[in-house]
Amino acid sequence: MINKPYVVVAVLLTILFHTNKLQAQATDKLWIRPAHSKSAPVWGIKNGIVFSIWPSPIEGTNEENTGGPRGLIRLGYENKGTVYHINYLAVEPVVDGKMEFSEISPSQLDNRWGKLMWAGNNENQTDYFPGAKTRGNISHPDSKHPEVEELSVYIFMERFINGAHPYLKLSIRSDRPEELGIEIFNHKESAQMQRCAITATMGNYSRLRNLYLKDRIVNSKKLYKGFDGIDFVEKQSYPAQQMLRDNNGDLIAIAEPDENFASLTSWPKAYLDRSNWRYRPNVKFIQYWRKESAKYDPSLSIRVNGRAKYWSGASKNPNDYINIPGGPAFENFELRENYYPGEQFYFGITTKTPQQIVRSLEDKKK
Length: 366
What we know:
By secondary structure, the chain is of the alpha+beta class. It contains five helices and 21 strands. It has two domains: 33-198, no CATH class; 202-337 and 347-366, no CATH class. 14% of the residues lie in helices and 34% in strands. Strands 7, 8, 9, 10, 11, 13, 14, 16, 17, 18 and 21 form an eleven-stranded antiparallel sheet that branches.
């Protein structure tokens, strides 16, 4: 005779096993994650944000494609089974007034441009590893909504020449698939950072030209009218008082192309040999930064710069550059504020209109 308590336990264990298996299958259908340590370091969510670190691209998978320079986080969007590369995120710490740029600051390993970056499962897993190392942690951040999942990954990097040694925690919530959470921390031996900006560095690719403020739209073609050089052009920044807010008081900076989709995806025949700059996504994306109202410093501001010609490395030869179709566009797009450990920003890539962005962020917090 079989003892009934054992039968009950066996049944419960079977139910638990199948429940966990179904949950794991649901999670695997939702998230984009490395299968193992030898997989490409790419993380993201279906129909939303995807990010990777060098040397792994997020668009195109041939062996020769590194997805661009070192020292940058590749940022894209998964749409209908295809991941499109939209922008890069660079790290720019400031120590004693000196700012360094993660994509051009030389590596201590080989003195080449670009800090090496790698991933970890937690803040203590800091040893360099040239692969995925972690699939990313899945957690449930909202006790009121236990169905909500969050994928998080720690990103480490080499120490900067100015002594700064920051690291990041990147996260994506399943109820906010178009938004990447970015938390900034520093190692104990790091020099004191005045600021550690995370900047979106490739606005020219999407030809971002309209910057939305509280009471006006700043257009890059008007702002940089007459500029035709091969370098960056920069004017004023915009303080928090000029930023859009949602009903929760969160501060928002929105940048969008000023062209319709047909114009954005067209490409001059004379530029066929530079088609890597052609806009490839099958929809027009808008990009934005968000800062929670309870966690911002009064020093917060929007900073943009622009270019009239697409970036062509460090070349000083004007013949190596081509004009951006339609005129100057914003290149770097970021929020700046005085640094503090745990400083957090959110970067979004979305098909929503600026008005829908503000409304949708309000709705998410109700």
